[in-house]
């Protein structure tokens, strides 16, 4: 089955700086890579996802890059703001492929200092 | 609110009691997934259901845990004879299509289960 490693576990940046979170996966059949943001007391909220037919996807200050050869994908947040502070999780299908039950990384706690 | 609705938000039970967690998927979604999250951990898959069918329960403990998604009404995750180790946040997600489809999973805000 799939295995997902996420780094770093904690990340502290100054407001306005960029933040990068990286995940590696083991199943080369995986084709779908979502990122979720979880605020305290809330459920995970999908913020961006990418499928294997593209190498990068951007949505305003958030971007995700995918390297299928190296089997890793990264979340990039530019011009960070205090409201970006949360726990971020990467995920990919548990059995590879493009959808279905997800396996999650252990999360990155991002703190943005004003 | 058209999102995934879970209730109760918080549930306290004593050891040996039963816990029932409910999840109403987003409107039009017929695929439901349950995940468990321990403190400082990521979410772990438990069970995937379609209306009236359990599709994949490989992540769910074989004893004391059961799930259903009836034709009418919410999906229910049931934990019998709860133990302290069952204390966790339980999240439900729903999607428009199941595996092989092209739709993401959307999560509710979870039920935080505490066992005394």
Describe the structure.
- The complex is a heterodimer of chains A (114) and B (116).
- Chain A is 0% helix and 55% strand.
- Chain A is mainly beta.
- In chain A, strands 2, 4, 5, 9, 10 and 11 form a 6-stranded mixed sheet that branches. Chain A has a 5-stranded antiparallel sheet with strand order 1-3-8-7-6, with no helix packed on it.
- In chain A, strand 7 and strand 8 form a beta hairpin.
- Chain A is globular and about 40 Å long.
- In chain A, 35% of the residues are buried.
- Chain B is mainly beta.
- Chain B contains no helices and 11 strands.
- In chain B, strands 2, 4, 5, 6, 9, 10 and 11 form a 7-stranded mixed sheet that branches.
- The model of chain B has no long low-confidence stretch (mean pLDDT 92).
- The chains are: A mainly beta (114), B mainly beta (116).
- Chains A and B meet through strand 5 and strand 10 of A and strand 5 and strand 10 of B.
